[in-house]
Every structure is written in C-alpha cells, then in structure tokens.
Amino acid sequence: xxxxxxxxxxxxxxxxxxxxxxxxxxxxxxxxxxxxxxxxxxxxxxxxxxxxxxxxxxxxxxxxxxxxxxxxxxxxxxxxxxxxxxxxxxxxxxxxxxxxxxxxxxxxxxxxxxxxxxxxxxxxxxxxxxxxxxxxxxxxxxxxxxxxxxxxxxxxxxxxx
Length: 161
Prior knowledge:
Layout: H1 6-19, H2 26-33, H3 37-49, E1 53-56, E2 62-65, H4 74-80, H5 99-124, H6 128-148
Helix pairs in contact: 2-3
Protein name: Rrf2 family transcriptional regulator
GO molecular function: DNA-binding transcription factor activity
Organism: Comamonas piscis
C-alpha cells in the first residue's frame, strides 16, 4: 500500500519557499519534490485558498509564502489541505449485521479518533518557524562536519547521507 505523502510534501515546499529570496516557479518546486509541476500546483491550491501562499504569473512569477508564515502551525496546514485522515485502518464492512464486526469496528474507530485528536494537538504545537530553525541548525552542523570530513555524499538539498 502506497502512503500518502501530501502533508510531508507541502511542508517541504513551504520550507523551501520560506528560505527563498524570490518567487519559486512550480517547475523548480516540482523538481525538488521529484514530481510534475501540475501535481505541485494542485497540491498548493488549498494553501493559496487559505492565504498561506500566493502565486504570480509571467516573467518573475512563481510561488511566495505569505507574510507571518513562521506562526503557521502544522495543524493549520493540515486544515488547509482539507483535513485528510491522519490515521487509517481498514474495517470489515461486508457484514454490517455481524455483532463481532460491530464491536471491532466501534473499538477501532474510537482508538483512531483518540489517536487523531492527540496528533492534531501535537501538530498545533509545531510551527513552520520551529522547523525552519531546526533546518538551519542542521545545515550549520552539516557545514561544520563537511569541513572536517571532505568525502561525504549529499542529497539534492546538500544534506549528508
């Protein structure tokens, strides 16, 4: 089963935009995500509707992160994406009259609702500014390590592997 990485992808894009000094095109952002620009534009639509990003067309156009972006929480972003399910378990629904299935499904739904409520609370406590600060600290540590270890392999962001 393929996992939905949409939430992670959006965070990735927003943090790139936060560091950018000029608008970034869909093509540039899609390249960082190894995806198609059309997929990226669809992904960004909810964020634009929520006022988290803006986009401009033509020469010099592209995506910009909204002022005050640092205060945006991961929960805010989750909401802007349409609040997709954070916890997913399959249920046997083929025999709804089955008492065993009813008890199992009720128990699983309750556990999923509790887990999702807890996760949403935690997402509300993490801001984009916090993530950006962690990236900055990681980059500084990486640059320091790079000067003392010259033969490191880096990914497309310059992070060590």
